[in-house]
Design a protein that fits this description.
8 helices, alpha/beta, Rossmann fold, five-stranded parallel β-sheet
């Protein structure tokens, strides 16, 4: 399949499924045929938390405080209650970061770049897997309700942009946990269970078993890109 405008290719999968490795491969492969940019569209709160607990002197103390607050906020959200103001503000901060990254991605795409994303926003499974975090209820603080609406509208806008191809990396819990020992095993299992159900507005999806040897995984992805014409000189933008 040939196309005159560059594609947006989303790579999704549980932590430990090999998104970073696959993403680097796809970017380097497609740069042989035209300008290509990598964009991370995830929340990255876990990455920030792991950096915080490594701070000297105060890291462990702050880590415990954040975990306690996060656990309390999670309990409220799971009971369909809006979180308190501070967790809602933290969530809004991360939503703002995602909006900025998404706008940057669209800008790069408009300039003629093929885009390869690590993760992609979705709304089918709230409070999981790059989905919205706030519950559907708007009962509670008016300010927190406005922050919840801010998140909801942001995700409606982001998910209105459908990727041209989704590379879905499937992995089992033992493999994922062995690769990500610093992650919560139960949280990894929830993501693994949701992965096959994600659809991204009917975008074409290529399923890859990422427990296979790396050479096999990359060969399968290379074949999928070639089948869709993404590894041809025709993948260029008509925009100036």
């Amino acid at each position: 399949m040939e196309q005159s405008t560059p594609p947006i290719i989303a790579i999704i999968g549980c932590d430990g499924s090999g998104k970073s490795t696959v993403g680097e491969f796809v970017v380097n492969r497609l740069r042989q045929y035209g300008p290509t940019e990598a964009v991370h569209l995830g929340k990255q709160s876990g990455t920030i938390f792991r950096k915080i607990i490594q701070w000297p002197l105060v890291g462990q103390f702050l880590g415990k405080k954040i975990k306690k607050k996060g656990s309390k906020s999670k309990q409220r959200v799971e009971s369909n209650k809006l979180p308190e103001l501070l967790p809602a503000l933290v969530n809004a901060f991360f939503v703002h970061r995602r909006i900025k990254r998404f706008k940057r991605m669209l800008s790069l795409h408009e300039k003629g770049n093929t885009i390869v994303t690590d993760r992609y926003p979705q709304m089918a499974y709230p409070r999981a897997y790059d989905g919205i975090k706030m519950p559907p209820t708007r009962e509670g603080s008016p300010l927190v309700a406005k922050l919840a609406d801010y998140e909801l509208n942001a995700f409606k806008w982001m998910t209105s942009h459908r990727p041209d191809l989704v590379i879905r990396l499937n992995v089992d819990i033992d493999t994922a946990y062995a690769r990500k020992l610093d992650h919560d095993r139960a949280a990894l299992k929830r993501k693994i269970d949701i992965t096959p159900k994600l659809e991204y507005q009917g975008a074409p999806i290529v399923d890859i078993d990422s427990t296979l040897p790396l050479e096999t995984v990359l060969a399968q992805i290379d074949a999928a890109l070639a089948q869709r014409g993404y590894t041809r000189k025709t993948v260029t933008s008509q925009k100036a």
